[in-house]
Write a structure and sequence with these properties.
Immunoglobulin-like, mainly beta, 6-stranded antiparallel sheet, Bact_Fimbrial_Adh_Pro, single chain, 3-stranded antiparallel sheet, 1 helix
Length: 174
């Protein structure tokens, strides 16, 4: 009986040596930052700012100033040691540097749109901290208010007419 047990044991051991399976396992994934969505006050991803029929004499004053309300909602809190930042870049006409690096050029020569967040200029083509959103909460959300004001280095030289300008806004944890 011992011989029989020994034979079965030996057979089992030999079978396991030659009968093992070799399996290759691939493990993949993607790490990503929490996603934040940005919309206008109406929930649309395109934000339109209408100045209407502005008077040339009002350029540079609060009379030709518009608020831009951006709604921000993030799916989770900020990663460690990172801050929510935004970058506004002109997509049409560029920057009107004669009045500052926060002024969008328009389609009318000498007319620009100065962008501010509170008292701070929104410097175009630069990453700036997003103020007013507490990113340490579970699902950060809130509103960011920007101000757009028509400006000109020389109001007397402005010509009446329809104007356009555009910019893109990107937000990211950095």
């Amino acid at each position: 009986m011992n011989r029989y047990k020994l034979a079965v044991l030996a057979g089992t051991l030999l079978w396991s040596i030659w009968g093992y399976a070799d399996v290759h396992i691939n493990i993949t994934g993607t790490l990503r930052e929490p996603i934040c969505t940005v919309t206008g006050a109406d929930g649309n991803t395109t934000v339109n700012v209408f100045f209407g029929k502005a008077k040339i004499r009002d350029v540079g004053s609060e009379k030709v100033e518009k608020s831009i309300q951006l709604k921000i909602k993030c799916e989770s809190m900020a990663p460690n040691n990172k801050v929510l930042k935004m970058k506004m870049s002109p997509t049409y006409n560029g920057v009107m540097n004669t009045l500052g690096d926060h002024v969008l050029k328009t389609s009318i020569d000498g007319l620009g749109i100065a962008l501010m967040q509170g008292k701070d200029p929104v410097v175009l083509n630069n990453w700036l901290p997003v103020n007013g959103i507490d990113t340490s909460t579970g699902e950060p959300a809130g509103d960011v208010i920007l101000t757009a004001r028509l400006v000109s280095p020389n109001i007397r030289a402005l010509k009446a007419g329809e104007f356009r300008s555009s910019a893109s806004l990107v937000m990211n944890y950095q």
